[in-house]
Amino acid sequence: MTLIDAVVLIIYFIVVLAIGIYHHRKNESEEDYYVGGRQMGSFHIGLSVVATDVGGGFSIGLGGLGFVMGLSGSWMLFTGLIGAWLSAVILIPKIFQSARDQNLLTFPQLLGTHYDKRVAFVAGIISAIGYIGFTSSQLLAGAKLATATFPEIDTKIALIVMGVVAVAYTGLGGLKAVIYTDSFQWAILMFGLVFIGIPLGFIGIGGMDGISAALPDHFFSLQSISIAKIINWSITIIPIWFIGMTLYQRIYACKDEKTAKRAWYIAGLFEYPLMSFMGVLLGMFARVATAQGMFADAGFANVNSIDAELGLPLLLKYVLPTGVMGLMLAAYFSAVMSTADSCLMAASGNILTDIFKFKGKSGRGKMVIPQIVTIIVGVFAILLASSMQNVLELMLYSYAFMVSGLLIPVLGILYFKRKDPGAAFWSMVTGGTLTITLTLIKKDLPYGLDPIFFGIIAAFVVFILVNRLKTPRPAFIRD
What is the per-residue DSSP string for 21-80? Predict the structure, then answer.
């Protein structure tokens, strides 16, 4: 790493830390810390939503998909567009005002108002576990990016540096710090991709001549994908827009319902087509570079010898000049940390509010406990990330666990007149447990479908049966 590149990265880290410190001084209550005082505008919320949802995991993961399958990999974020717009039309109008009236801070609290406190408690556990895993996936993405770009940096050192910075500004500043750093970081990411990464990557691999010579025809098609793959992505990603704690925090943070809807429409358009095609295009460029032997001196002589998720950071290393490399790396660190900080806030809120039932009072002195919890969760996420290898796999596992456990109770709120707490409880237990079990078994499932599909179906069946039979709730889940 050159001195210029290092200086660019240091300046970037200083700016995001400064934003955290600034909002640390502004926060005066738990409401300020977790939902930004409920007065945020659509532009910053929209950018924060897409930065959180796409982030480093999907940025690096999309590069891997482009490396492996070409343009068809862009369909993964099309599901994000569908999820965002469906949520704006279906979810936000039904929950915004009641959340404002009851001063809700978390997603499980919403379940508690429609079912009971025990359901909220279990939902808090599921959400916290999922978001800790998701935070880890983002930090791992950043570490892989740094290590692939600068081999002299040890993976664990990169993980610790990224983690400490993200945990520091998130723990200090709360949701406002997260949202404003997300906007800043998203601007850096867009500038880096549009004006640096794609143009210089395209030139570095020889333009269209190089691309045409290295890639098979199916890489240029949007139809080179199986129905099962689209179904798996859809049932994993679309429902997260209805059960994601990070998203509920932003709904609660908006100043009114129209602002929330507008923010979600903005986020959907940023996800698809903008971010989806930029991500897979860079992945395709990386595959071309690998096939041309650009990475041979790094030990990757052909496309079969390299981890697909490493192709993109290696491409950046080889085609970007000094100084610009530091800016581009800051752009990808922005993608990583803009998701890690949000997931960290979500897990912290779940643990403090839904599991331990902490109720803070106004005053800066009362912010110490939320900040300590956020820092502890962040440290644990760093330790978890150090034991994992695949970014997209860890991220999708976290998604699957949360969706299979939490989706059906939310649909119960939206579409069922009778909302039996026992039905919600048993559907959460069934869906989450079955998905985890099938994932750990690692056996091929019918039609190539992922475990989450069967977890959701099982949760739905259990919810219907218990709700219709009106079975008495077990003693240990009664109020």
Answer: HHHHHH--SHHHHHHGGG-B-HHHHHHHHHHHHHHHHHHHHHHHHHHHHGGGGGHHHHHH
